[in-house]
Every structure is written in C-alpha cells, then in structure tokens.
Amino acid sequence: MIQTAQQRRQTACVPLLCRCSSFKWNALATWAWDVDCDTCAICRVQLMEECLRCQADASSTDCVVVWGDCNHAFHNCCMSQWVRQNNRCPLCQQDWVVQRVGR
C-alpha cells in the first residue's frame, strides 16, 4: 500500500495526540525559616509569626528574627531582652553573637 505525504503526516500525528493528557493541578506553597527549630525558645511562638509582645502591641508591624553564630534563631524582641540579663544563647549557652537578621 502506497501512502501519500498527507496520509503519512496524519498517521504520524495520531500517536502523539494519544500520548498527551491534561490534568488540573492546585499548588499550595508554604515556607519556613532555615533553622533546626522553627519556634522561638523564649516566647514559644513560631518564628513565622510575631512574638507575643508584637502581637499584643497592635501598632508593631516589624517583628524580625535574629540568628546567632550557633545557628539558633529567636525573635529580635525576645532576644534583645534576654541579652540584657545574659549574653549567651538560651539553647546552647554559647556567647551570643548575631550572625544575621531576617524577616
């Protein structure tokens, strides 16, 4: 059987159409801080949320997180009060040196 060029194109396209399928995908994205524990050890609130002090003060909109050289993270409000009494990390007792500040 001899096929024309048009017939070859039509039959070549049929298997490709059969291999294609469509589907619906609902993406849900979450994020988290890059730390071992995602909860502030001082106020026990997740780092993604405002600390207790900032939650109580409705005018406060900037509750940042600080990481120490030991890679432990705390709310800045919580840690700033902590270092007034003790200049060590509450979790590992290393000298507290701020490595980075983030939101």
TrEMBL record:
Pathway in which this enzyme or protein is active: Protein modification; protein ubiquitination
Keywords: Cytoplasm, Metal-binding, Nucleus, Ubl conjugation pathway, Zinc, Zinc-finger
InterPro entries (alphabetical): RING-box_E3_Ubiquitin_Ligase, Znf_RING, Znf_RING/FYVE/PHD, Znf_RING_H2
A GO molecular-function annotation: zinc ion binding
A single Gene Ontology CC term: nucleus
Gene3D superfamilies (UniProt xref): Zinc/RING finger domain, C3HC4 (zinc finger)
Pfam families cross-referenced by the UniProt entry: zf-rbx1
PROSITE patterns with a match to the protein in the record: ZF_RING_2
Primary location: cytoplasm
Keyword Zinc listed: yes
Domain RING-type: 51-93
Subcellular location: Cytoplasm; Nucleus
PANTHER family for this protein: RING BOX
Protein family: Belongs to the RING-box family.
Protein name: RING-type domain-containing protein
Organism: Haemonchus placei
Higher taxonomy: Eukaryota, Metazoa, Ecdysozoa, Nematoda, Chromadorea
